[in-house]
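Before drawing any conclusions, I looked closely at one protein, both as residues and as discrete backbone shape codes, quoted below without any editing:
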Amino acid sequence: MPKNRPLLAQLASIGSALSANGAREQFGALCYRMNDVTRALDVLLITTRESRRWAIPKGWPMEGKPAHQVAEQEAREEAGACGKVSKKAFGYFTYLKCLSDGEKVPCVVQVHLLKFERALDQYREQGQRELLWCSCFEAAVRVDEPELKGLFRLLHERKSKRR
């Protein structure tokens, strides 16, 4: 599948796999904080280990752990981000995951908000990814997934109304 094709075109080309096998489920953390200097809302992006594209911390279900705890653990392991995670899902997005054998599988990511409180000095995937705190608008420009872009915009709208 050519990389230069838009994500929706890539997903459309595997529609039969979606309906026959269903999409795989993952859980992600949308980490946010108020910038002390600008008083604006910032969100955390990380790069994926293989393709180096911008994303949020996310991972596969874990035996015995509810979705929000998986999201919280992924934020801690992938970005060293700790904070208060919401039990309720904030939203969902889809993307194509390239597995180690080269197979591409559709994934649906259930996203939970994590209000950032502190960064760990050491964490599991330290040095394997780049981390970037940026505005919701910049995050929406940097990520490829249309639904994730929408979640950044929605977070900005909701948090801006509370100030």
